[in-house]
UniProtKB/TrEMBL annotation:
InterPro entries linked to this entry: Na/Glc_symporter_sf (IPR038377), Na/solute_symporter (IPR001734)
Family, similarity comment: Belongs to the sodium:solute symporter (SSF) (TC 2.A.21) family.
Superkingdom of the source species: Bacteria
Family annotation (NCBIfam families): sss
Matching Gene3D superfamilies: Sodium/glucose cotransporter (1.20.1730.10)
PANTHER family: SODIUM_GLUCOSE COTRANSPORTER 4 (PTHR11819:SF195), SOLUTE CARRIER FAMILY 5 (PTHR11819)
TM spans (from-to): 12-29, 50-69, 81-102, 123-148, 154-176, 188-206, 239-257, 290-312, 332-365, 377-398, 410-431, 438-462, 468-491, 511-531
Places the protein is found: Membrane
Protein name as catalogued: Sodium/solute symporter
Length: 532
């Protein structure tokens, strides 16, 4: 891979990027009404803010780099994690969002508190905080820190500190509104640069012909035909179709419907219609994941097979940056670093905002200072943002000291073992009124110990476990066990009475919302048919 050291044009682009980002953050902060809820942007977000913010939270450098690596080694099958998601984004729009907005909540633990009581709310608040610190902040900082360390040659802790400082600044400056407005700018930039890299790569592959490049990508002598299949046989080690079909819904339900970092933009929607349109826009943006994250890895593989890189050995994890260093002209490295920084700031900023929201509203205001003024609430949110940032740096350094870790696979498997308890509690809480507080609390305590304990045994203790059962299938089995246990506990619990129904916005979806979702469903079904 060519030298990626930054030249003067790169620094100019990076500097210009941060100037524009700062201006947008300051402008968004000035648009916030005095005394409004910064955690939910004063319920002012429109569909494009919501869509870009949700997608931006989901996008990180680990996805950008690891997805290209997956494309290089296995083709588009990892795109299931992106395209299968539209089902659960639709579930958020039509099942969960009407209930969340109907109850006028700020956090998802607050919602479960209204359903099951204060004890459940407290458990979910701490569960959410730990999840954000580990899965959103530490792993994202680790992935971004590796990239920044490679380019700038600075220690991991300093890389993490710089990224957190930028993200925390925007979170503290204007809350969710500043995060959402800067996300729009950052995601447009991300789409532009990655799409450009894909197009230039295909053009180069075809010998200065885009159609020629497409022809070579379709040539089975260059790209194995199974690289273009979304469904792989169950004998496939990494992406068997049945575990993905049954297991991904557990992670997808938790991730898209019950995770505070992902759902918060919808909670801040101007109204339900904007929230449903914003979720739909997120679904359309997820289609781009394959085009701008995975296909560059396949293009890199094709260029390598056709001898473009000479006799050089290409490591899968370097596929994305190999394309950047070989295809982009001098000075474009700065733009790429701006894009990667955009993805980092977007994810970290949303996670910090979610962290401060949950702690401030579910723990501080609810249990410590019920009569806290708006000024105290904002100040507490700022303090939590800083403390959370410092704790996440410590966790990031700990992750950096673990050797031999495949970040992408570990990230997916960790989510698979975090998801079942939360998914089970939300599903039963929303769909079954007879479900009791005792059942929810047992699942959040002993169910969490069982789920995460199974993950520890699977990933690190039992040798050969991964060859025996796929982690997605194990996640599915754990979820089923938790659901059955919740039914048994609820039916035998004679103390807890059935709670009254919760508020639901029952307005009919607008024509635009219905058309948008029907069109998305048709396109997604078409893509699955075409790529099999």
């Amino acid at each position: 891979m060519k030298d990626l050291s930054l030249q003067t044009p790169d620094w100019i682009i990076l500097f210009g990027y941060f100037i524009v980002l700062l201006a947008i953050g300051v402008w968004a902060s000035s648009k916030s009404k005095k005394g409004s809820n910064k955690f939910l942007a004063g319920h002012s977000l429109k569909w494009h803010h919501i869509g870009f913010s949700m997608w931006g939270t989901n996008v990180g450098p680990s996805m950008l780099i690891a997805s290209a690596s997956a494309g290089f080694t296995t083709g588009i099958v990892s795109g299931n994690y992106a395209w299968y998601a539209f089902v659960f984004i639709a579930l958020l729009a039509f099942v969960f969002a009407p209930r969340y907005l109907g109850e006028n909540i700020t956090t998802l633990p607050e919602f479960m508190g209204k359903r099951f009581g204060q004890s459940t709310r407290n458990m979910l608040a701490w569960y959410t905080i730990v999840t954000i610190l580990i899965s959103w902040l530490a792993l994202t900082l680790f992935a971004g820190g590796i990239l920044i360390r490679q380019v700038f040659g600075i220690p991991m802790w300093m890389s993490a500190f710089i990224l957190l400082a930028i993200s925390a600044f925007f979170t503290m400056l204007g809350g969710l509104k500043a995060v959402a407005y800067t996300n729009v700018y950052q995601m447009v930039l991300l789409i532009f640069v990655s799409a450009t890299l894909t197009v230039v790569g295909i053009y180069t592959l075809g010998g200065s012909s885009f159609t020629g490049g497409i022809t070579k990508l379709a040539d089975p002598d260059i790209i194995p035909s199974d690289y273009w299949n979304l469904f792989q046989p169950n004998s496939d080690k990494d992406f068997p179709w049945l575990p993905i079909l049954l297991g991904y819904p557990i992670s997808g339900l938790w991730f898209w419907c019950t995770d505070q970092s992902m759902v918060q933009p919808v909670l801040a929607a101007k109204n339900l219609n904007e929230g449903q349109r914003g979720a739909n826009f997120t679904g359309w943006l997820k289609i781009l994941d394959v085009a701008i994250y995975i296909i560059p890895g396949i293009v890199c593989f094709a260029l390598w097979k056709t001898g473009f890189f000479g006799g050089a050995t290409i490591e899968a994890d370097n596929a994305y940056m190999t394309l950047v260093s070989n295809l982009f002209p001098v000075g474009m490295v700065g733009l790429v670093m701006a894009v990667l920084t955009a993805a980092l700031v977007s994810t970290i900023g949303s996670a910090l905002n979610a962290l401060s929201t949950v702690f401030t509203m579910d723990i501080y205001v609810k249990n410590i200072r019920p009569n806290a003024s708006q000024q105290e609430i904002v100040r507490t949110g700022h303090i939590v943002t800083v403390v959370g940032a410092l704790v996440s740096i410590v966790i990031t350094i700990a992750v950096d000291n673990i050797k031999g870790m495949d970040l992408f696979n570990v990230f997916q498997s960790v989510l698979s073992f975090i998801a079942p308890p939360m998914a089970a509690v939300f599903v039963m809480g929303v769909f079954w009124r007879r479900c009791t507080t005792l059942a929810a609390n047992i699942t959040l305590t002993f169910g969490t110990i069982f789920s995460i304990g199974s993950g520890i045994l699977y990933l690190w203790v039992i040798p050969g476990a991964a060859e025996t059962i796929h982690f997605m299938m194990l996640s599915f089995y754990i979820f089923v066990i938790l659901i059955i246990s919740m039914v048994i506990v609820s039916l035998t619990d004679k103390v807890s009475a059935e709670r009254p129904a919760m508020a639901v916005i029952r307005e009919k979806p607008s024509l635009g919302v219905r058309v948008g979702w029907i069109a998305l469903a048709i396109v997604m079904i078409g893509l699955y048919v075409f790529f099999n």
